[in-house]
């Protein structure tokens, strides 16, 4: 069964009626996000994110590979989102569904196509060897708005991740273990996030960060990808009822404010985590062994 | 040695869920169970009299491959045996278990999947318990490696597992029966017998291996056994869920 | 009362935990089964758990049952009240969803109070009914049948029938069972056992606004209607829903439930 259970008439009518009074089921204002909670796991690039009851884990990983023939100077970066029955009983593990395809496409456009991760910096040796960065998104609890949640988690993960250091010596690529050389942060060019709005009652009522029930009751959606500087890198009025053009202009401003807020919140958690790691690192260093080199072909 | 960490029912959407982390091997697993539900795509394959157990293992940083399919098969057969699929509401329905590897290294292609099997088994069992799927018994499982010098190591790290001569996974039921044994590598029957005794003592906390000086003291007591750990994890959740009921007593 | 006992699957129920009243046959609740064990003196019977949970006994009714985890999926049981959603209708039946992603339950087109071929309700897809589980059938593939009348009286006892207007909120099946137990007898005493004061607290504070009406389905749904509350109907409904859901999710203690009610009513600007 690849569809969520339909909303009852009572629920749909009530959600629309309440919005006319600017009331949402959880007491939020139209432009409020649900409480956002981000934490990092033990490994670099492991992000746990809760947005209300939507719960996502992102893991970033890196491996050395051969660059594409047509882009010898570029490394690779892929976002992998696979929905399993863990997130919602409506999703069948191992089968793609609409949400998966739609969310992957949106994330690709906002993060990859806007070159948020500088792929040129992933090149190790032209045409021979480069880093391939992979972001795996695990949606473990689904209550709407996976695009925004995944986008925040991936960006936080990319900023948190450290790849092993690699150098080219005499035409050979040497990758240093994490114990041998301080691992390297990725080169992030800008921090775009997606902000998803849903429209109701002939686009008279527009809300941000809809829950699953609100999404089901909505007549249309609007996704804005924007960074802290206010540069719009993605805009999609994908489907549903037509929306007033002025709504889009107005909501772009709201989106910009939200992105600035969220990026600041992420930055805070990130700095706290790095400070904690630095403390542990100092303790470790005092009993570190001598450097040893590991060579790979 | 640092013991495992586990908790129950942390997810909202799934009917039951559990997390299990084994610090020694570094693996951290999240399990979710939806049951009993319809499996429309497999209507023809369903057994009419009982429930069908489906298992899906999702690796942390790669796409699922043959290794995942292999452990899924083991998990399906072990858990399928203990699920009482004829209880009310379950015949012809599905018990869908999803396990995500959310922490620890990837199992590289060609490496042994036995290292992660006990953690997957425990997370799967606890998620089933959390979803109140009727079960005939519970179990606990352990991984043991035999080194070149013949020492038996409990929960070897992925690196230690690679260096081991043989690897063994045992699952022992709450009724003290051997439920599962997967062994690989080179070993003789005497070694296997020693490993089995050690596994029994780890899982059930028996003092069967008292003649063997290797067994550390902690494992001999019931509370330090893995089955004791599973029991405590479940009890903790029941006590917290029914705090309102227990306070009034 | 004896010490609370948590059982895991395959654990035996100790003899001293069974009710001692022998006048009625012992009744087993969900999560327990009887096994016969061959022994040297012929076979003996033992009660074992099939789920994990807290063992509870009722000496009056001579029952023993296991309270399992509250977030579990609902499995239809005869006589339970449920809130079902119409999915589609056929000649004789409405096909209803009781829990998502399971087979539809059947509700007879004439299983309503005073319904005849001409007066039966015409329910559309997505409409809700408050119904009782009439039968769950036996064997594999058995269908669950619902009814909106009490077969003994032919009346819609306990508010059975279509639910119009209002809003449904999802709660855990454990919370739904608690709400039903707490309201089955209105005595304060019962509230204390279930540790639920949230409803009576809401009732007291919202009385002046017109009060509210609720129906609880064992399948984890609570229908709330405040059509008496006039212009504040929407806010009262949302407030009741939020209080119930937060009490459920955070497993709040009675004094925290009172605090929650005060906080949410103030938050919704319903009381100053």
Automatic annotation (TrEMBL), chain A:
InterPro entries: ExoRNase_PH_dom1 (IPR001247), ExoRNase_PH_dom2 (IPR015847), ExoRNase_PH_dom2_sf (IPR036345), Exosome_comp_Rrp42_subfam (IPR050590), PNPase/RNase_PH_dom_sf (IPR027408), Ribosomal_Su5_D2-typ_SF (IPR020568), Rrp45 (IPR033100)
Presence of keyword rRNA processing: yes
Keyword entries, A-Z: Cytoplasm, Exosome, Nucleus, RNA-binding, rRNA processing
Record family assignment: Belongs to the RNase PH family.
Protein name, per record: Exosome complex component RRP45
Entry keyword Nucleus: yes
One family name in Pfam for this protein: RNase_PH_C
Record localization: Cytoplasm; Nucleus, Nucleolus
Listed GO biological process terms: exonucleolytic trimming to generate mature 3'-end of 5.8S rRNA from tricistronic rRNA transcript (SSU-rRNA, 5.8S rRNA, LSU-rRNA); nuclear mRNA surveillance; nuclear polyadenylation-dependent rRNA catabolic process; rRNA catabolic process; TRAMP-dependent tRNA surveillance pathway; U1 snRNA 3'-end processing; U4 snRNA 3'-end processing; U5 snRNA 3'-end processing
Chief site of localization: cytoplasm
One GO cellular component term noted in the UniProt record for this chain: nuclear exosome (RNase complex)
GO molecular function terms noted in the UniProt entry: mRNA 3'-UTR AU-rich region binding
Domain Exoribonuclease phosphorolytic: start-end pairs: 33-164, 192-241
Automatic annotation (TrEMBL), chain B:
One cellular component term from this protein's GO annotations in UniProt: nucleolus
Coiled coil segments of this chain: none
Segments traversing the membrane: none
GO molecular function: RNA binding
Intracellular or extracellular location(s): Nucleus
Main location: nucleus
Protein's GO biological process: nuclear mRNA surveillance; poly(A)-dependent snoRNA 3'-end processing; rRNA catabolic process; rRNA processing; U4 snRNA 3'-end processing
UniProt keyword list: Exosome, Nucleus, rRNA processing
PANTHER family assigned: EXOSOME COMPLEX COMPONENT (PTHR11953), EXOSOME COMPLEX COMPONENT RRP46 (PTHR11953:SF1)
Protein's name according to its UniProt entry: Pc20g05810 protein
Organism the protein comes from: Penicillium rubens (strain ATCC 28089 / DSM 1075 / NRRL 1951 / Wisconsin 54-1255) (Penicillium chrysogenum)
Lineage, uppermost ranks: Eukaryota, Fungi, Dikarya, Ascomycota, Pezizomycotina
From TrEMBL, chain C:
Exosome complex exonuclease Rrp40 N-terminal domain mapped to chain residues: 26-69
Transcription among keywords: no
Molecular function (Gene Ontology), one example: RNA binding
Compartments (UniProt record): Nucleus
K Homology domain location: 166-229
Principal place of residence: nucleus
Protein origin, superkingdom: Eukaryota
Pfam family, one: RRP40_S1
Annotated GO CC locations: cytoplasmic exosome (RNase complex); nuclear exosome (RNase complex)
GO BP terms in the entry: CUT catabolic process; exonucleolytic trimming to generate mature 3'-end of 5.8S rRNA from tricistronic rRNA transcript (SSU-rRNA, 5.8S rRNA, LSU-rRNA); nuclear polyadenylation-dependent rRNA catabolic process; poly(A)-dependent snoRNA 3'-end processing; TRAMP-dependent tRNA surveillance pathway; U4 snRNA 3'-end processing
Keyword Ligase: no
Keywords, alphabetical: Exosome, RNA-binding
Database matches in InterPro entries: Exosome_RNA_bind1/RRP40/RRP4, KH_dom_type_1, KH_dom_type_1_sf, NA-bd_OB-fold, Rrp40_N_euk
Name of this protein: Pc12g16300 protein
